[in-house]
## 1
Amino acid sequence: MSRRPARTRPTRAQTRERILDGALEAFAERGFHGATQEDICERVGLSRGAYNSSFRSKDELFFALYDRVIERLQSRLEEATACALSMPGSTADNFLKAFIASYPFDRDWYLLQAEFGLYALRHPAMASHYAERQGRILAIIEGALADILREDARIAARDLPCIARLILAVHEGSMFQGLLEPGKVASGELLDFLVDLMLADAGDVIRRDRDGSPSQT
Amino acid sequence: MSRRPARTRPTRAQTRERILDGALEAFAERGFHGATQEDICERVGLSRGAYNSSFRSKDELFFALYDRVIERLQSRLEEATACALSMPGSTADNFLKAFIASYPFDRDWYLLQAEFGLYALRHPAMASHYAERQGRILAIIEGALADILREDARIAARDLPCIARLILAVHEGSMFQGLLEPGKVASGELLDFLVDLMLADAGDVIRRDRDGSPSQT
DNA sequence: GCATTTCGATACAAATATGTATTGAGTTGG
DNA sequence: CCAACTCAATACATATTTGTATCGAAATGC
């Protein structure tokens, strides 16, 4: 259909994306300082020329990767919440678990976000950027929780920000445990436990036999 | 009192400790790969000669630092639990908060432990070492909790391992938040909230006015 | 279709980090 | 008090890594 000769050379944007792909792997596997240009490029079959032609510095690349990762996470969460909220009659328990399931749960994701966090703590310039982006994620969670709680008011609305942070913290913590000792801790166990705690409307739920309904995560 | 001439040269062990001090700072501030021999030595006024004379490699130094940090944490926690358990009549709430308060809560500590964690995830050789050491910390927490629960049985004993991990995860998560946006989140807020959740023996506690008794952390 | 521009690969130069070797001060044992 | 030894500082050689400059292929516009 194209009257022009078929492209044999990828566009600038495509190469950029490929570099970002390589950077994702390399930063996850070896960390910010540990990842080298060579390492990043090898993974996607490009030369350092493409690297230096696409990004002015390592920091710029790191920022770009962070933004891409967060953008994808954001749309993923928004989609999941919209989907879950659209189906009526969902209980808070089910929704929370569905929501949590939509959060990335793989090795590279964890390693990367940990690396991002450390970088942010060490570089004030990125700290605010990071906090702002993470604020959006928290807002999505809070919004979803707020919608849930219109039907299921077992949690005080004032605690929402706190709960959202709690969910994030526990998710990351349990992801670390799961990666460190695979099989030792079930992937969603901690979060399930936390949700049970929060949604317990009486003491009996806390002590109930939690094995009766094993999660299939 | 010493018949020998006063030492003018520090012992090997002392130098080793100083290198570890420098390494603690450097690894916390710049990460494993980011920290250089020069960087580590400068902080404690030693030369790279002392460094290379004390440690065969960077990994060896990192391991040694990890062990020292964990050892100190372990004795700190053991002391805290022993102390808290010795005074009779302590409620679970008070004890948990005292225990949590004994856990390190400073920037370097967080950055270091995060770095250790990442290193462990990336190097299988350290993973088991790390998991074993962290298991001891968890055991201390579980033991303390078990002692508490003899008097205050609002939590099922079978959930102890899960709860211990939850406490650790939330602690680390809130420490990160606190460092990223100082003042935005009170240092112990998330943990207090979690403890409230766990010890709520009826739904009213969850929804109670938590500002009535602000924690002085 | 040709000139111009863009992009990515290769080659080069500079900076930085690590480990080894050497040296001199300080310590220990006879 | 002297000889042997230990330790940390300095100097050196090697290896990586990064950034720049150059070159050729490919796309675009006239």
## 2
Amino acid sequence: MQRQKVRFVPTTAGRVGMYLCGPTVYSDAHLGHAKKEVAFDVIRRALMHFGYVVRYVTNVTDVGHLQNDSDDGEDKLLARARLEQLEPMEVADKYFWSFVSDMDALNILKPSINPRATGHITEQIALIEELIARGHAYASNGSVYFDVRSWPDYGKLSGRKLDDQAEGTREDIRTEKRDPRDFALWKRAEAGHIMRWESPWGVGFPGWHIECSAMSLKYLGEGFDIHGGGLDLQFPHHEAEIAQSEAAGHAFARYWMHNNMLTINGEKMSKSKGNFTTLKDLLMQHDPMVIRYLLVSSHYRSITEFSDAAFEGARSGYRRLSEALHEIERHLPTAPSGNNAALDANIAAHRKAFEDALRDDFNTPKAIAALFGLTTDMNAAMNRGPVGAGTLNAAREVYRTLGGGVLGLFSASSGTHSAQADEAPVVDALMELVLQARQNYRLNKQYAQADELRQTLTRVGVTVEDTKDGPRWRK
RNA sequence: GGCGCUGUAGCCAAGUGGUAAGGCAGAGGUCUGCAAAACCUCCACCACCGGUUCAAGUCCGGUCAGCGCCUCCA
């Protein structure tokens, strides 16, 4: 708990256990959630690239939890269920699958284990019982609270001292707690509360923080390596996780990583502020890889400012990279054999720069800069004349393995145009016909007709470029 | 009020004390029927004021501005 950048040494050589606080599935994910998911996905991919076997656990919070800390506050899932006239679990599943499809679009690797809070009630109750047995928790009126006063370490992650904290919350709940800062491990279910389970303290439901302790310890074991999440969860959520785990006698996460927030007009994007754009909306308007590029082009610990202008920049920047890759792969089949030693050296240097950047706290902006360096070198070389196949392959490898495998910006293998896979042959054939027709116009110097054709294609989002080697198109 | 973070060109964004990565946009040029792409060239007194140092965007103090957490939030 040094609150600074430290050297990473895993518990078990060659293996890393990671836990990431996942979504509460009661509404669609927005761009801010994507920043977190992409950040930790890249960290996971980078660790894999450096040879670690990673077990990546991220939870699904499908217990509602309260909108605020008062007893009469409605559970978020229940509120949503009422609004949409669905069963609470129907709400959870609806938004869980929605989340999964968003993450797939963004090329996020699937978790190794994706446990649900409602599937681990037993484990949570067991942990609470351990805490009571050790004198760090107490039952009160059907609920159970963590006794903050009994655990001097509380506050060590976020650097807070108990006495600095504002006196908390509502009158009615304060009477149940020994100290206003005590947090709920188990809550008594009021009549009408649909999500409810039997427990030694009566019918109720688990507190918000306990699920992450129970599930991370269950699947990653004591003293697991990395725990991640949004900076806004540092306090109280992560602080509570640490306290309740360690007070129960279990060594908890050894490294904590927090991603910073995504802002819009300088303010945090959040559900409660209502200033969010859902991923669903963005995915309809933009190439998912452009969204990913935007998120990866700022450091995970930095704030990412999101705006239309930032998006435009990301779109252009991403295109520059992907076009260079396509150009290399286009040249590859007809490239002369052999290598260009000077270029090979540059490629190796860019590769090293990329890897060094990741080794230093996953500096993705710096890593991308290395990719741009490579791009400039390769474009310049291909502009000058044919480049040897060995050299082209070396460059291609960097794009696909690092840009693709680690940053997740390209697929691991070669792709063609962005047309849907099953329609690609048809589209290609049609485009060939159209371009041939346009070439005929051009050869006959009927430029008006040729330009008319190009205009028409532009309107449907197809760009045509005339190159030395003939016309090219892209979507 | 408590804890903490940030202020780098029109925009986005790195930066380990030695005189500012990268991208977008913009300007000029090469190529081209035109356009686009690509290539070449250009484009920052690092919020302000003090201090430490041979040397500070980078360390220390202060000022101003913005933001986050302390209540659900990635």
